[in-house]
Design a protein that fits this description.
This protein is of the alpha/beta class. 43% of the residues lie in helices and 13% in strands. The chain has 2 domains: 226 residues, Glycogen Phosphorylase B (Rossmann fold); 169 residues, Glycogen Phosphorylase B (Rossmann fold). The longest helix has 29 residues. The protein is globular, with a radius of gyration of 22 Å. Its EC number is 4.3.3.5.
């Protein structure tokens, strides 16, 4: 008789990082597995609401400090800032895994973001099964078809592979340099051979299983990816507590025409759940909508950054479930996070993306190449340019058809189920 496994799912970050992992937790629980979710304390309520055991690690102050630092959205400073924060999470994440391993031994399976170095270090010590989860294609190496790293850099797919290898080499040298000191000090202290190079290139990926949480038509599996990589599809999951729309939001959506189903569907403007610096983005988006006579729905958890809105034509809401809302709007204007990008694709709605940093430029480029939207660099994100592109999109029958076709593809996939099949070995 097989012994019961213990699954611990770990991540730190915004809703875009947390929601997919809670989706994995919920599917594991549905199958009768023993599962716990480990993250910053501020996510406890979401986990416990769906009946998932919660393990707190780190603190919310580190998260708030990070999102309120403007460097988090800088085109190149952002990567160094994230690398620096990784070191601060080693001890708390390792302590959780050590405690779990002491109780469950080889029956422990840890499912974690690549940035949870504490889990990777514990795997080196004790050899339990570790699954690395990548939500975005950007983190996979590919010198043949490299991702877009910046809105201002060249299209690397037009460059020779030796140039792209050189770029990755320099990036490794710089980013590994930020995290190497705390990582190596920790390894020496615990009797583990220090990793001298290839921290993000090789070591950060689990040798057991690496999951790409997106469909292959969004990002084709490359020959340089880890050998144990599997692409499973987008992880569609939302907070069930907020699954419905408020009466006020329903009234607004229905206010443009009969049922909100015709030409006056509003435009959603959302800078992302972790962006406290989205004021200018929101202002430009709202003004662009006014310029072409479209209604606007601003969605942000930081209302202090909202410009003055016109009653009846414009509305603010803190949050609404994307899968319900996006099917009832004309265009979504957002930051290019992979979670929002995936929900737009799954809802069949065109996107205008203003990417800043991290995976956002790459996601924006992929959306553009799929014919499902467009991206505009921050320096070119003006009322005139956004209004013109918005008006084109609203009347673009080919783009709408592309979006509907991709929504149909996603409806036939189940990234969470496929991921859990691989995690439990089915």
């Amino acid at each position: 008789m097989n012994r019961k496994k213990r699954y611990v799912v770990m991540t730190f970050g915004s809703y875009g990082d947390v929601f997919p992992m809670l989706g994995l937790c919920e599917e594991l629980k549905r199958r009768g597995e023993d599962v716990a979710f480990c993250s910053r304390p501020g996510t406890r309520e979401m986990a416990e609401r769906i009946g998932i055991e919660f393990i707190g690690a780190g603190d919310d102050a580190l998260y708030e400090e990070s999102v309120r630092n403007p460097d988090i959205w800088h085109p190149w400073k952002a990567s160094f800032m994230v690398a620096e924060k990784i070191g601060e999470l080693i001890d708390p994440s390792y302590a959780v895994v050590r405690n779990e391993y002491e109780k469950h031994g080889e029956d422990l399976v840890v499912i974690a973001s690549m940035l949870v170095f504490g889990a990777r270090l514990a795997r080196e010590q004790w050899g339990f099964r570790l699954v690395t989860v990548h939500l975005q294609p950007l983190v996979f190496r590919d010198t043949r078809k490299p991702p877009r790293f910046s809105v201002y850099g060249p299209d690397m797919r037009k460059l020779p592979r030796w140039v792209n290898r050189g770029f990755y080499g320099v990036a490794d040298l710089l980013l590994d340099g930020v995290v190497r000191k705390p990582l190596n000090e920790w390894q020496v202290e615990h009797g583990i051979e220090p990793v001298k190079k290839g921290i993000f290139r090789d070591w950060g990926h689990s040798p057991d299983l690496v999951l790409g949480m997106f469909p292959e038509w969004f990002a084709e599996k490359g020959e340089e990816w880890p050998r144990v990589s599997e692409v499973v599809g987008f992880p569609v999951w939302d907070d069930e507590e907020k699954a419905g729309l408020s009466a006020e939001l329903e009234a607004f959506l229905n206010g443009g025409d009969e049922g909100g189903s015709g030409g006056d569907r509003p435009v959603v403007i959302t800078p992302g759940s972790a962006n406290v610096f989205g004021g200018k983005f929101i202002e430009v988006g709202v003004e662009a909508c006014r310029k072409i006579g479209r209604r606007a729905l601003v969605m942000t958890g930081y209302p202090e950054q909202i410009c003055e809105l016109k009653e009846g034509r414009e509305m603010w809401c803190e949050y609404a479930p994307f899968d319900v809302l996006f099917k009832r709007v004309s265009v979504v204007m957002h930051h290019g996070g992979v979670g929002t990008t995936a929900r737009c694709l799954g809802s069949g709605v065109p996107q205008i993306i203003m990417p800043l940093a991290h995976d956002q430029p790459d996601n924006g480029q992929r959306v553009k190449e799929l014919g499902a939207g467009d991206w505009i660099a921050p320096k070119k994100f003006t009322v005139e340019r956004v209004a013109a592109r918005l008006e084109e999109m609203v009347g673009d029958a080919e783009m709408k058809s592309n979006c509907e076709n991709m929504a149909g593809q996603i409806a036939g996939e189940d990234g969470v189920k496929r991921a859990v099949d691989l995690i439990v070995g089915e």
